[in-house]
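Thread: quick sanity check before group meeting

JM: Hey all, I'm pulling together slides for Thursday and realized we never actually wrote out the predicted structure for the chain we discussed last week. Dropping the sequence here so it's in one place. If anyone has concerns about the input, flag it before I start.
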Amino acid sequence: MPVLLTVAADTEPELPPFLTVLEPPHHPGRRSHYHMSRHDSNARVQTLAREALVWVEAARAVSAGVTDSTDAENAALTLCFVHWGQFMDHDITFSPVQLAAPGVRIRCCADGVVADDAHPRCLPIAVPEDDPFYGPLGQRCMEFTRSVPAMPTDCSPGPAITVNLLTAFIDGSGVYGPHESRAAQVRAGEGGRLLMQEGALLPRDPPGVQIDTELPCLSPDPEGRPCFLAGDVRATEQSGLATVHTIWMREHNRLARRLERVNPEWDDEQLFQEARRILGAEIQHITYNEWLPLLVGEAFMRRMRMGTQRRGFSRRYSNRVNPSIATEFSTAAFRVGHTLIQGHLELYRRVASSSVSLRINLRDVFLDPALLYDGQLDQIAIGMIKQHPQTCDASIAEDLTEFLFQPKGHTFGLDLIALNVQRGRDLGIASYNTMRSRCGLPRVSSFRQLQRQMPTDVVRRLRSVYAHVDDIDLFFARLRWGDNFFYDLGDRPWSFTRAQLNQVRKVTWARILCDNVRSIVRIQPSAFRSAGIGNSITACGSLPSMNLRAWRWLTMAVRHLRLYIAAESPSAELKQVANFIAAHYVPAWFTVRQNSGYNSDAKTLHLSVELFCLQLPSS
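JM (edit): ok, ran it. Output follows.
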């Protein structure tokens, strides 16, 4: 979903840019600023070129003309599939927009029209007078602010590319944040655990915490029931997403407590870092083993060699692969999930129940944590594994196209699809037809040719708002091959042991839900898929679970220190790990016993490690 508030307009953060699959047009963000088609006559182009800042087909007109709100569910999947997609999107992409000042949003519209003093970074969406929803409400302007441009890596002039505030890697940044400062805010400071409040909920978001990147909170009681603090600032965007964030906070704390039992000598830092490493591996494993195959298909997973291995270590890493997120992916392709979103949430008290305990419109839970404070998290989680998402089509819930982030007491909100279209134009991404060619599909020269890939009624709607097919806006493999820290890679100082990796491979989203949602005692093994033949409801106790005894520190110390001894020319990373382990473990188990001083230079370290390993059992 779009971000409303991020960095201030007068800042120039040194943050990584998104990758672009195709070079942007010469004037990114102005490709369609003029109300014209690429196939208009020269005379018409010259006339319309004088009309600055007027869009080709207004983004709201595209949304209203191409989409509808027909209810058609995908009975094969559960709502977990959609919530995981949003959680994953927030783990790898965060494109900031300009602010007037820290915590102050740029206002582009006033009294339903473009403001006279609109900021230069405004790019408001024009709303047609005959708009079926906004028209009668007197709205001719929808808020939209341009993205923050990134500093080119070589400082050369060229088309603007937006900033990605997050790492492109699937690394649990939604839980811990992308920076140490955010991680420090969510840590409890003892036992390696994360902060939580009464009811095992996410901690309260204190006023003033990174106000330059916070979304607004629409809680009716912002003092008593504020929005939540998590690794990602969008955690309270809607109740289902807040539930997923809460579950992962609980999972981290569960891991930290278990690690403390098997390693009572570990301090807060060791417990936190190892629990974080395991949790990151869990997220990666669930994503590539359960979720992505449902999204892109098993055949594509095999062709791109993206799947997880059943045994042994993987070698699927290439330093030639750029893992950066493509603008076309974040701005268009990955937003396919928006069509799957339900316009309401169904809550259930038990997995076995067929009776909905509460049905609430999505518009009523945007940026509002009330349901979780009311003790409804368990029922939301159960609803996630029982309720179906919408099908992937041109139908979008009106809660997204008319009531997105609707403030309390207002009669309307934003239009997510219009925002998607406008953001693609803001970033200057290629058109749908151009990306077809880039992806190996033939270009189309007429709307009729689109009927080979799209339903006839969708093509008809496109024809009604676009003058030519070339005008149609475009709406993971690199993350696998380009991640040198992917959980199943071997022969690295930070690799899991074989025994630990075998335990990680037992993890499923169903098991995570069982371990962290008290009311879930029975569940289907594949929680992203609906219960049924081959995926029957079963007791949580029958699902595989990790045994954290594989994380006893003796096992890890022996393995990493033996790697150091075996290496003829240890890498800098391996030396760092060996020094860390020697500093934490060797003094306690070897140097102290020998009643001698400890010297960490290479020669003494090598000897200490060698003697230390001889005393310990094999890993």
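AS: nice. The longest strand covers residues 344-347. The chain is about 35% helix and 5% strand.
JM: adding both to the slides.
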